[in-house]
Amino acid sequence: MISTETVSSYLERLASRAPAPGGGAAAALHAAQGAALVSMVAEFTSGPRYAQVEEQAQLIAESAKQLLNEAVHAAEEDERLFGLLSDAYGLPKDDEEQKSIRREAIGNATIEAAVPLVSTVDVASKVIKLAQELLPIGNRSVSSDVAAATQSARAALGIALVTLEMNIAAIKDEPARERLTQWTNVASEMIGEAEELSFQVRSAVSV
Predict the structure, then answer these.
(1) Are the C-beta atoms of 150 and 128 separated by less than 8 Å?
(2) DSSP string, 126-142
(3) How many domains does the structure of the chain reveal?
(4) Domain containing residue 93
(5) Residue 160 sits in a domain of what CATH number?
(6) pLDDT at 40
(7) Which residues contact 182 (CB under 8 A, 6 or more apart)?
(8) Which one, 94, 130, 133, 185, has least CB within 10 Å?
(9) pLDDT at position 49
(10) Of 36, 67, 56, nearest to 146 (Cα)?
(11) What predicted TM-score, i.e. pTM, was given to this entire model?
(12) Which letter, b or e, does each residue of 56-89 get, where b requires 16 or more Cβ atoms within 10 Å of its Cβ?
């Protein structure tokens, strides 16, 4: 289980021929790291120098920690649901009835497997929004970590985007396709916002 194993154990499994964890879990953990970095910067925004914004920073830290937990849960759900999708592909297909049952099972499992990806897009987007709120008030000595958080969230969005697009291509259910396409649009938009925020940090540091 991702939340209880060591980093080395997770990476060894990720590097193996096992069907899961894969890109979806990796995306969610990028989002989790982004959330953790936002929380770290917010925690450093404390003391007399930041008295006027410390309460706001603490609220950001609390929100970021909640997002971290949600992202880890998404990683674990991605692994679980991808396992179910693999099981569906393994169903027998010796006759037309079995093929029909298999096709339906694969379609349903593909839709379900997209749920953690949607969660990852949602979490990563919220991480970027928190980073946008934190940058103007945060401890300047760790402002580069705001960019690091943003780039972690951006990586999550990029992976989730391409994986969702692959899922959409395999889904026949039109309402599900439309719903997931809306989330790919969110991911694309937030990738742009992440790049803009990173540029702001780099510009401020170079002054």
Answers:
(1) yes
(2) HHHHHHHHHTTTS-GGG
(3) 1
(4) 20-206
(5) 1.20.120.680
(6) 98
(7) none
(8) 94
(9) 94
(10) 36
(11) 0.93
(12) ebeebbebbbebbebbbbbbbbbbebbbebeebe
Q: Which residues of the chain have pLDDT under 70?
A: 205-207
Under a CB-based contact definition with an 8 Å cutoff, are residues 121 and 154 in contact? Answer: no
C-alpha to C-alpha distance for 207 and 204, rounded to whole angstroms: 5
Report which secondary-structure segment, H or E, holds 154: helix 143-170
Residue 100 lies in a domain: yes
Q: Which residue has the tokens 């990738």?
A: 191
- How many CA within 13 A on the CB side of residue 131? 37
The CA-atom distances, in angstroms, between 63 and each of 35, 68, 85, 198 are: 9, 9, 32, 21
State the Cα–Cα distance between residues 42 and 37, nearest whole angstrom: 9
Joined together, the tokens standing for residue 45 give: 């925004």
The tokens describing 50, both together, are 């930041």
**For residue 3, is it within any domain?**
no
Short-list 128, 18, 120, 129, CA closest to 77: 120
- pLDDT at position 42 is 97
